[in-house]
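Predict fold of AAEL005842-PA; 350 aa.
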Amino acid sequence: MIRMPLKNVEDFEAQTNSAIFPVINSLNTHMITFFFVLGGMVLSVGFLNHIDRSKGFTLRYQWKKLLNRLARLLPAYAFIIFYQATVFKWTKKTPVAFKFVDYCSEHWWSNLLMINNVVHLSEPCLQYGWYLGADFQLFLIGLGIMTSIWRFPALKKICIGAMLIIAFAVPGIVIYLEKLDATMSFDMRHALNQLREYKEFLRYYTPFYTNAGTYFFGMIAGMVYHHVSKNSISVASRYTKQAFQYVFVLLIVLSAFLVILPWIKVEKPSIFLSIYGSALKAVWGITHATVFLMYAFKTDSVQVAFLEHPILRVLAKLSYSIYIVQYSIIHMVYSNLSVPIRYDMFNTVS
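Predicted 3D structure, encoded as tokens:
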């Protein structure tokens, strides 16, 4: 929509220049941590349950997990990549449609190899697919960590310590070395190019190593759940709720600071921005991890019963396919709109 001629440009600019917009944009940016934390937690819980059932160390389970994951991801992914590389270009009906450029006909292989968050970032095939690449890479790393813990139990504390160090240190180091802002902001010139030249997006948002911390928080949460589920869940539920309250307050404070951050002139590279950006990302990950633990321990709550409803289970299974096709549908719709269009906060009208 940003790439379309607008009738009411001033309304759009007023929205993006509002004081609360940096907080809203941060919420949008950091919601991706939800999925990384969830992926890490599911991996560790499943792996630890397998260790409990297993009679001895083997690599068979790891290969099975890897092959099952590829079997779930690749067929639908390959189909939509083929569509983008062949059929999609014939759906463009208006001159403005050619603002929506995709590179699947050239770079399809990087997506199928799950390295599209590393190469061709300025000429992506299915740009949103960076998440699949990063998540798959973190899955392999997480699988390696869990395998090491299984084979050498004495390494467990060392691995957890290393994961925590990476979680808190790596984002800040990247922010400092790359001379970045503390978090992704919104700039019209970057949006017009679909973020393909936006340094914060390319160097901070999409790499697996800057998202590793949130994935690791999920893995650690899974370890906590596995341990506690064998003991007193009621006690753990109380402590988890208290932990969530403290973390949530910290998240509110750090997020509220974004209102004044754009007005603070800091020369880059900045240690302050590095510490703040790393803390903000970590707190988002910890918040999601504590939320998952809190609901995992609420076995008899109304919320859990609702989330376990069969309809939601079906929708959850369909969500990946919806995620895969969203780009093609959105671009096809916008590329066939009459222009200029009128924009408001919740809809677009030709």
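Residues 9-349 form one domain.
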